[in-house]
User: What shape does this take?
Amino acid sequence: MGRDKALLDCGGAPLWRRQWRVLEQAGAGEIFLSARPDQAWVPPGVTTLADAVPGAGPLAGIAAALARCQTSHLLVLAVDLPHMPPAWFAQLAATCTPGRGAVGRRGKFFEPLAAIYPCELRAAAEAALGRGDFALQAFIAAAADRMIVHDITDAAAPWFENWNEPAERSGNADPR
Assistant: This one.
């Protein structure tokens, strides 16, 4: 990308701020940001979490958040999903039960970065990291008894488009 995705403009605000609002609207009781130590842009008053295992990808952030979570479930939203509406999380939350979360799936692939995890998966996440198994697809597949799977409809598919390349940013093609 060449720069921090969290700071990309999304409707006049940085992308991280947009995602923060989505989480608030989805009913998240406490919100924290998974950020690298070198991300000095994080404003004062925003709780940040360091990855449980540096350099281990998103599973490390999820494990750190599960360890910090004070509720029964953890809602996860990646910063680079600028079209995700709060309604997606309402749909997932409606099927969550004690000890069971919810995740979307398109075809064979899960969408683990817009999902709700039961906090009971903390030990499994830490164990996977300890083994060097950082792949979220494998983690979700192994946790199938703890996750309700929602097939993502064609109408909902655009919600999962991410900003991984500069050209993918609608209305903002500046690659710097």
Notes: Confidence is low (pLDDT under 50) at residues 167-176. The beta strands are 9-10, 13-14, 33-34, 48-49, 73-77, 101-106, 109-118, 147-151. Residues 12 and 18 are 9 Å apart (CA to CA).
